[in-house]
Amino acid sequence: MLGPSAHTDTFTRDSLPPEDQWPEINLAMLNYPEHLNVGVELTDRMVERGFGDHTALIGNGRRRTYKELSDWTNRLAHALVDEYGVKPGNRVLIRSANNPAMVACWLAATKAGAVVVNTMPMLRSGELSQIVEKAKISFALCDTRLMDELVSCAKTSPHLDKVVGFDGTANFDAELDRIALNKPVRFDAIKTGRDDVALLGFTSGTTGEPKATMHFHRDLLIIADGYAREVLNVTPDDIFVGSPPLAFTFGLGGLAIFPLRFGAAATLLEKAAPADMIDIIETYKATICFTAPTAYRAMMQAMDDGADLSSLRAAVSAGETLPAPVYDAWLEKTGKPMLDGIGSTEMLHIFISNRFGDSRAACTGKPVVGYEAMIVDEQMQELPPGEVGRLAVRGPTGCRYLADDRQKHYVRNGWNLTGDSFSMDEDGYFHFAARSDDMIISSGYNIAGPEVEAALLAHDAVSECAVIGVPDADRGQIVEAHIVLNPGFEKNEAQKKLLQNHVKATLAPYKYPRSVIFKENLPKTQTGKIQRFRLRAEEI
């Protein structure tokens, strides 16, 4: 039974799945008051607890204390409510790279009772339009350096009425910032319910059609009070660094919620290449890092060249498979284990993980406190140890899609089916086998093959195409496009480059095919369906 709601705009609660399609939620170990606003808990409450002078955020060349963050977000919340009429339950889209201003906007909108939709700066107008349509978003905040694609989206959207710019640098020189500077530093935050939706996390799925995962205010604290407390043992002395975008729930948890929940500091990088993270680690003596194995390889090379990363006490790997050689090399080089884990946007964050003192190569570990996991067959029957099957999990968080028929495929018999194939050994440790679907995971990014195919087919040169993921030593997988050209187009390197650039201009650039193979024809069934498994077999 859902608790009370402060939302006057009831869209998200009205769009929750039918109760009989919900996963079982176990809150036995976690107790939160009926009224809870996570924006308050991570700012004002931290000041009340004595962390006002502690550093909360580091970015764009300056530090911001918890008191500064509290005041800043209260001013912004006033601006959203007083000047722009944001109402509790309204969806507010935020478009920005990782920087303190994005965190402040997210917290301010949350204090105002809005449902926040964080989006990556790489998304194009068409991709943003799908999100705006799905969530019925009428108001957006955007770093002024990234306005073009969102303004283009607004011009054709029947929903998006207002796009307001904020300054993603440290200059406070944009419309939202100028208005907020004249507002009071005290704000009576909306007394949202613990079961009010606070965040919509979008995931493309294998079809490319976006799904919105719905997360309550309590969920955002659960991942900190569970995984971050039990596995990472976060203290106020910790300094976080990482590469995942805040638009990913993995990044929002690891680079905002976790540090702010425990009085620690978050370093935020707009460009988080390994070299940038190494510089931050050396400069600020960062202690906890969130990134993918690809980046850890580069960091180890930098250590060989003299980089000092000895301050790191926790290296968290997620987003793609952690190869055993990377785990072994990190342990040998640092004397500390790399903490492999698995999470999902649907579950909000990591739910199975290795621990300090209990980790091993090629192993994802055991469930986080409060979670259960098992390996099942297609009939949801539990498989014996050692057999590969579907990973099923349940616990204090779980999948709730916004008005989406795919809910009943992700949740069965109260369990969340993550789309991953795993095995469990005799000692209860879980081992990743493969993705159960056709999602391509490259450097931690999820890429839906059909979406890339649609972009390629929009080009005049392309007659047919099939996109698959192929193994890559550095990225885990890369996108490979098998293409049949129309008559009159040459099969040469120049043509490959044109098609790659076309995809970069149509979709987020990380989705482009790094490998392009021209074919005379594609393998098909008698009914004309492309047999992608045969293309994958050619790569083995």
Largest sheet: 9 strands, mixed
Structural class: alpha/beta
- Helical proportion? 25-40%
Order of strands across the main sheet: 2-1-10-9-11-12-13-14-15
Uncertain stretches: none
Q: How many beta strands in the DSSP annotation?
A: 25
**Terminal Cα separation, in Å?**
50 Å
Shape: globular
Figure out the total of helices. Answer: 17
**Portion in strands:** 15-25%
Q: Could you explain how this protein is built, in words?
A:
There is one protein chain. With 540 residues, this protein is α/β, with parallel strands linked by helices. Helices cover 31% and strands 24% of the residues. The strands form six sheets. The protein has a nine-stranded mixed beta sheet, with helices on both faces. Strands 16, 17, 18, 19 and 20 form a five-stranded antiparallel beta sheet that branches. Strand 3, helix 5 and strand 4 form a beta-alpha-beta unit. The longest helix has 18 residues.
Short description:
Helices cover 31% and strands 24% of the residues. The chain contains 17 helices and 25 strands.
What attributes does this structure have?
540 residues; alpha/beta; nine-stranded mixed sheet; five-stranded antiparallel sheet; 25 strands; globular
Strand and helix map with partners:
Blueprint: H1 11-14, H2 38-41, H3 44-51, E1 55-59, E2 62-65, H4 66-83, E3 91-95, H5 100-111, E4 115-119, H6 125-135, E5 139-143, H7 147-156, E6 162-166, H8 175-180, E7 197-203, E8 211-216, H9 217-230, E9 239-242, H10 249-261, E10 265-267, H11 274-284, E11 288-291, H12 293-304, E12 314-317, H13 324-334, E13 338-343, E14 350-353, E15 366-367, E16 372-376, E17 389-394, H14 407-410, E18 411-412, E19 415-424, E20 430-435, E21 440-442, E22 445-447, H15 449-457, E23 462-472, E24 476-485, H16 493-506, E25 515-518, H17 532-539
Parallel strand pairs: 1-10, 3-4, 3-5, 5-6, 9-10, 9-11, 11-12, 12-13, 24-25
Antiparallel strand pairs: 1-2, 7-8, 13-14, 14-15, 16-17, 17-19, 18-19, 19-20, 21-22, 23-24
Helix pairs in contact: 3-4, 4-5, 6-7, 9-10, 12-13
